TrEMBL record:
Its EC number is 1.14.14.5. InterPro entries: Luciferase-like_dom, Luciferase-like_sf, SsuD_RutA_monooxygenase. It comes from Nocardiopsis composta. The keyword Ubl conjugation does not apply. This is Alkanesulfonate monooxygenase.
Length: 366
């Protein structure tokens, strides 16, 4: 069955909407999480930025106001000890009875990393992430004290008495589009997260990550794959495209300033991640790809984050998502330009179509 992930923030804002209310809006955060639960999402991603609210605390608050919704907490290794973080995650996983997963990101921008005191380069960050996850996973699994000595971390007699509620451990999602990312994610990830590229390029990335997993001694079939989009729905395809053009016009008009202390977000010009470069390359090849993939929003934002859209009626977008399921995608992360309203619409109009057809295909004989 396809897993659906949304995304929540602590304030009502987006690329087309200036923030309404305070940065930490308790009422909005509660309603946003509850809207995703009522819409039928499996999890919501809580992102990580050097200027934003702490994702761990946001997850704890949102979990206290929901009953079933899972939380995918983004985390950048390097700012906290892996043994400490392993216990923090296990504790929250226990209190939420298994509703926690983690999304590991090594950091795309040197400038943003330095805001939090990290002066390493990208290759070093990926080596550190690899070692960090070795220690975290060992902490979750250990029943006896253990020692670890590596390039970045050294612990003696480490043992956590806080087991994860999830078995065998908290799920690890991993993002990145570089060769280093494939190597580290292929070794550690349960679900490898990709941004929304055309089908051909997505299939190539899936193959590359599976090859890295095999090289790390894993069964590539163990890996799930996530892909991220910004669906723009209308009652008809024509209505959806009219709405899409209006959204693009607002972005290009510059009426809404970028987030993050008055400066651009985590993707910063020449420091753009490989994932952002790939989205922009897709935009150079064409504005519309495959059934409904639209790259104009990626170009307009500099591909700052997951920024490609799927445009059309719920039926058209559902078929487009199922095209990705057909090439090996197991998880779909979607968020809208009108964040809360779109989450409600996705739950009403889109998720049921994808799940129904996916179940039908799984039940059908080969």
């Amino acid at each position: 069955m396809v897993e659906f992930i949304g995304m929540i923030r602590t304030s009502d804002q987006s690329e087309i909407r200036q923030r309404r209310g305070p940065l930490l809006d308790r009422d909005y955060t509660r309603r946003f999480a509850q809207a995703h639960e009522e819409a039928g999402f499996d999890r919501v991603l809580i992102g990580y930025h050097s200027w934003d609210a702490d994702g761990f605390a946001v997850a704890a608050y949102a979990a206290a106001h929901t009953e079933r919704l899972g939380f995918l907490i983004a985390h950048r290794p390097g700012f906290i000890s892996p043994t400490v973080w392993a216990r923090k995650i296990a504790t929250l996983d226990q209190f939420t009875e298994g509703r926690v997963a983690v999304h590991i990101i090594s950091g795309a921008s040197d400038t943003e990393q330095r805001r939090d005191g990290d002066h390493t380069d990208k290759p070093t960050r990926y080596r550190r992430t690899d070692e960090y996850l070795d220690v975290v996973k060992r902490t979750w699994a250990a029943t006896e004290p253990f020692d670890f000595s590596g390039e970045f971390y050294s612990v003696e007699g480490a043992l956590s008495q806080v087991p994860t509620f999830s078995r065998p451990r908290v799920p690890i999602y991993f993002g990145g589009s570089s060769a280093d990312a494939y190597r580290v994610g292929g070794k550690h990830a349960d679900v490898y997260a990709l941004w929304g590229e055309p089908l051909k390029e997505t299939a190539e990335q899936i193959a590359a990550v599976r090859a890295a997993a095999e090289q790390a001694g894993r069964d590539p079939g163990e890996l799930g794959f996530s892909v991220s989009f910004r669906p723009i729905l209308g009652r008809t395809d024509e209505e959806a495209w009219e709405r899409a053009r209006a959204i693009l016009g607002t972005i290009e008009g510059g009426a809404v300033p970028p987030a993050g202390n008055g400066s651009a977000p985590y993707v910063l010009g020449r420091e753009s991640s490989v994932g952002s470069q790939r989205l922009l390359a897709a935009a150079d090849r064409g504005e519309v790809h495959d059934r409904a993939l639209w790259t104009a929003t990626a170009r307009a934002t500099g591909a700052a984050g997951n920024s490609t859209a799927l445009v059309g009626s719920p039926e058209t977008v559902a078929r487009a998502l199922l095209d990705y399921v057909g090439i090996g995608v197991t998880t779909i992360l979607i968020r809208g330009y009108e964040p809360l309203e779109d989450a409600v619409a996705y739950g009403r109009d889109l998720l049921p179509l994808v799940r129904s057809e996916s179940a039908h295909r799984q039940a059908a004989p080969a």
